[in-house]
Amino acid sequence: MVRMILKGVVIGVANIIPGVSGGTMAVSMGIYDKMIHAATHLFSEFKKSMKVLIPIVIGAALGIVVLARVIEMMFAKIPFQTNLLFIGLIIGGLPAITRKVKGKSIRLGHILSFLLFFAVVAGLAVVGEQEGASADLSFSLLNVIKLFGVGVLASATMVIPGVSGSMMLMLIGYYNPILTEINKFIDNGLAFDVPGLLEGCLVLVPFGIGVVVGIFAIAKVIEIIFEKFPEHAYWAIIGLIVASPVAILLMNSFGAINIVTILTGIVALAAGVVVALKLGEE
């Protein structure tokens, strides 16, 4: 239970950092397949599915609420080491997925799957270097519908390994406004500001409903793909994961680099690999 919550924390933190994929972290922690199965069999295997999903959701919520500002501060103070930590977490997850195709023949279709999805992530990172115009979150029926749609899009991309949901939000101008609303909601909750909480709900509830719908919808699609084309799917995920460090390098700044930052960065990279390998153990 504690291990699953910790895995959820890593996934939650990853989902709020542009260029870092929560789906990739799920693969790194060895729970991606379980998450997809639990989401698509929630009603037919309710108890079993909830046993998987509840600790992950609790951990993800803790990661977003408690560690979001810590990670934000780390990126501000030690960006080089923090970026390498996440790259290490991604690298540490590769063995878990490469074992799925080990010993099997590599065909042209597998190579094309790898290259296509590598190019998608790298291309999004290049395009996503500049954030679009900030979105309007004022209350209206149109904005409620938009927020629902944005939630669906964000969660769908969060579930796919290698694709950063936060990077997608950044591209369409919703990243900073949504993150600001989450932080305001937390502050209002701590201050017992009921009007402030209700105002926040007007934004976060339609967005949150969209997130839930998007997760279940994309999970079903992914399950079908794995049933019909398992090897192509695994090679596509490998392409997404291998491209993730490239996306991080393109999306984030590293600050001033000297011998100390390089040495501590190597330590952070190694720590990330070790943590991913440990959390990926059954």
What does this structure look like?
With 282 residues, the chain is mostly helical. It is 78% helix and 0% strand. It contains 13 helices and no strands. It has helices at residues 2-15, 22-28, 32-40, 46-65, 68-77, 79-98, 108-127, 141-159, 165-171, 175-190, 194-228, 230-251, 259-279. Helix 8 (141-159) crosses helix 11 (194-228). It is globular and about 60 Å long. The two termini are 12 Å apart. Residues 129-133 have low confidence and may be disordered.
List its salient traits.
282 residues, single chain, mainly alpha
Could you give a quick summary of the protein structure above?
The chain is an all-alpha fold. The chain has helices at residues 2-15, 22-28, 32-40, 46-65, 68-77, 79-98, 108-127, 141-159, 165-171, 175-190, 194-228, 230-251, 259-279. The protein starts with a helix and ends with a helix.
Write the layout of secondary structure elements.
Layout: H1 2-15, H2 22-28, H3 32-40, H4 46-65, H5 68-77, H6 79-98, H7 108-127, H8 141-159, H9 165-171, H10 175-190, H11 194-228, H12 230-251, H13 259-279
